[in-house]
Amino acid sequence: MSALLAVLFLLTAASGTAVVLVRDPGRQIFAIAANGLVLTLLFTALQAPDVALSELAVGVAAVPLLFLVALMAVRAGRPEAGSGGDEA
Amino acid sequence: MSHAMDVLPYAVAAWLFAVGLYGIASSRNLIHLVGCLSVCQSATYALLLGLGYRWGSVAPIFYDHPPGTPAVDPVVQALVLTDIVVGATLTALLLVLTVQVYKRGGSLDPETLRPMRGGRTPDSAPTSGSKAAP
Q: pTM here?
């Protein structure tokens, strides 16, 4: 159990570092989702199942979708910067 | 092994906070910056849950829990639950602000951000923002 916790803590550090070091926002979304999955496994191993459940809903599903929507909004409003900007 | 296991959650939390802060300071894209901020916040998850995880101790509400089995502190788990929800809300708010910044300025690089003006029309800018202008 202790070895499993150590491995999961180190995986958390590695995946957080990966989120920072992946500079392209389109690829960073996958790193964020992987970070949320590793955090879910860590919380399960730390005997916090309710926290793991909410991290699974928020960190794996909701937050990457938010990043995806923001990236799509930025890419859709690229040509003109000013009034409107909803036609690509 | 046990001594290293005691220090490991604090070390991981410090590393996550430091690497997230490095990412915020060196980011060239505002969406990437929001992701680095969420890494900074996951340091608090690791710190709080690592604090609450104890070997061989009995939490006060589990007085009939057999000792020797792992016991957790539910107070810090409730704190982390609040922390996750607040973090998701903060991420959504910052991403909306990022999209608005891109619509106003046309760039996502934080280095090219200009100071905000008071009004949209040019004749209202010198009257409302007179103390900001030199």
A: 0.74
